[in-house]
Here is the input.
Amino acid sequence: MMLKDKVIFVTGGARGIGYGIARAVLDAGARVAIGDLDEQAVSDARTSLIAETPVTGDAVFATVIDVTDELSVETALSATRSHFGFPDGLVNNAGTVRLGKDLEASTKDWQVQMEVNVIGTHLCSRVFAKILIDADRAGAIVNIASNCGKVGYPNMAGYNASKAAVINLTRSLSTELSEHDINVNAICPGGVYTPMLMEVAESIGACIGQPADELIKTMVPAQLGRHIEPLEIGRVAAFLLSDHAGIIRGQSINADGGDTPY
Ligand SMILES: NC(=O)c1ccc[n+]([C@@H]2O[C@H](COP(=O)([O-])OP(=O)(O)OC[C@H]3O[C@@H](n4cnc5c(N)ncnc54)[C@H](O)[C@@H]3O)[C@@H](O)[C@H]2O)c1
Here is the structure.
């Protein structure tokens, strides 16, 4: 119960890693607000979370959010505060990817990845941190970066660059927010079985003429020999959001089954 009585906001919580994080923080005793683009999807995710965990409906709040829109971010965090009281933790998980050779990538592809992955992380962190600072409250932010932000895999240059920016933003925010007792870290996952990984398999599969459902079986961390489950990333996030992680600051921690050695 590392997060007993804490309130955690997870962006992109309707599916994939965000959903796994919501489950893990509930398991750790928190109440959770999940935010996502689609109202029906986020409401269905709330229903599933209540069905899959021992919590009652009071512990899960669902709200629409577009992390690229400042007004939407303010509205979602304000609705969460009205529902639960002050938030203690924020997970910047919402993300998007555009695949293909960089020589053929459009400026629009680059912009959308920067807007969601980087500016979205900045906006949500800013709104969340101001709420805490105004109330003189401590808290934690966990950014979901990617091992792509360290490695630089082919056919996803804009995504790689956006995640490298999230890694540096994590370090920068950590230094700025430490005086307010807000701890900021990031997780760099890789090979997590989600709709996004399937999207990547479909794109690569179409290029090399291999069915996506066959290809995805090979897209596993080598040392682990299997996909990572969203709940496993969620457990790392739960730890980083907790008071036990106070000595870990501004770090971007690999959670990719050992694929990235630095
Ligand atoms: N799956 C992996 O192996 C992997 C590896 C490294 C990093 N990541 C990162 O983890 C995070 C989650 O990835 P996933 O695999 O679960 O992806 P996913 O596509 O399955 O889920 C992403 C969620 O974010 C939401 N979202 C997208 N844009 C949004 C916006 N503007 N505002 C609010 N919500 C928005 C989507 O609606 C979706 O529910 C992303 O940041 C991704 O880059 C994933």
The longest strand covers residues 182-189.
